Amino acid sequence: MTTLRIDDAQLVADGRVRRASVLIDGDGRIGSIIEDGQPKPSADSVVDASNNLLLPGGIDEHVHFRDPGLTHKADMASESAAALLGGVTSVMDMPNVVPQTVNIQAWQDKMDAAKQKMLTNYAFYLGATNDNLDELLKADFSKVAAIKFFMGSSTGGMLIDDDSTLDKLFAQAPALLVGHCERQSVIKANEDDARARYANNVPWSAHRDIRSSRACAEATDEAIALATKHQARLHILHVSTQDEINSLAQADHSLVTSETCPAYLWFNDEDYNNYGPLIKCNPSIKTRQDMLALRKALQDGIIDTIGSDHAPHTLREKLCHPYWQTPSGMPMVGHSLPVLLTLAHQGHISLPSIARSMSENVADVYGIKDRGHVKPGAWADIVLVREQDNVVADVAYKCQWSPLNGAHLSHVVDKVFVNGRLAVDAGHVTGSNAMPLSFSPRR
């Protein structure tokens, strides 16, 4: 590889925005940051980025690429391409596929497939079940992203419903625990009430009450208590409620961190009337008050990271069934960054909070080596974006739809570099130099 200099961008990194240039060395790493006014070193090629924001490439910690076993919905190749086009350079894929990634052999099979398919950097989770703790203890967490556990049932059926198993998991887990926190008993009672009231004609707006704020808050509080009891590191996924924010604000941040998703920052329960099954997801999209509280918590640093929870289904699966048979989840990996940039453009969050939550904090929470920060020595995972009003229309997802279709977004992705190599240019994937992610595991 040759050297490359990206000139005169508005660099969004380390809590500030400033004009700077970035030199990428021939090994694909960042060689230096050249502040505005400093002499620029020579390079084999130069990119004029004077009309661009430069951010660290997004690290999406929470994707469901449906590969293996569910590839009629999505696969590693199609969804990693969509991720790149949205400025995401690394992804961590969840274990609820077919077969489930709950043992080391299944994890290795996914790693082997990724070498041939993935256009982004990649890592995979191991999923916890009621009976696989011994398998988890054998894993190499310098290569495995983390341990995913489900306290509420969702697509894939990996619910841990045994309290003693959950306690042992927190007591013995050798690495970060990443949790889907909804109390299953509360969900079940709400489902029973909805069946009695609506039978098979459940309105989409009732999803907010079935997968309720109480279900989220009770499970989140239980997980925080277990992390505190066992001094285990816990990362709570897809926070969707004000109540959870209140609990997180009181938790020990050295142990407990959290994620929210673009859908919870963009939509609220008023949108069920327009979007119906397209925004059915678990946990559910909550109230406008919750949405505004999440935006503030992200800006204030109470919520640490953004993950897309990219969970595609075909339109037929989403539109052709009553409530009870309609799967939860939506495609989002290619739109996380544009949605956040639009929220920043509208004044709801800051640009530095985007770099922090989509990249910097993700690398720090997971212990990802040499990623997530625009600094010398790090891999040159970089995205250039420019301000331009655009309407979401054609999407790159295999399922060929997005709940954002028709939405006006404020920025477009111009160029994406993965490990120093140009991977996206003007809306086209040009190649990739993808690698597996490496971690510095700690309990």
Can you walk me through this structure?
The chain is globular, with a radius of gyration of 21 Å. Strand 17 (421-425) and strand 18 (428-429) form a beta hairpin. It is 31% helix and 22% strand. Strands 1, 2, 3, 4, 5, 15, 16, 17 and 18 form a nine-stranded mixed beta sheet that branches. The mean pLDDT is 97. It has helices at residues 76-85, 104-117, 133-137, 163-172, 184-198, 207-210, 213-230, 242-250, 262-266, 272-275, 288-300, 315-319, 336-345, 351-366, and strands at residues 4-13, 16-24, 30-35, 45-48, 53-56, 58-63, 88-93, 121-124, 126-127, 147-150, 177-180, 234-236, 256-260, 305-306, 382-391, 408-418, 421-425, 428-429. It is built from 14 helices and 18 strands. It has 443 residues and is of the alpha/beta class.
Q: Brief description of this entry?
A:
The chain is of the alpha/beta class and 443 residues long. Helix content is 31%, strand content 22%.
How much of the sequence is in beta strands? 15-25%
Oligomerization: single chain
Main sheet summary: 9 strands, mixed
- Helix-residue proportion: 25-40%
Backbone structural class: alpha/beta
Q: Which ranges are low-confidence, i.e. pLDDT below 50, for 5 or more consecutive residues? A: none
Radius of gyration: 21 Å
Mean pLDDT across every amino acid position: 97
Would you count the extended β strands for me? 18
**Count of DSSP-assigned helices:** 14
Judging from the principal axes of the Cα atoms, what is the shape? globular
Distance between the termini: 37 Å
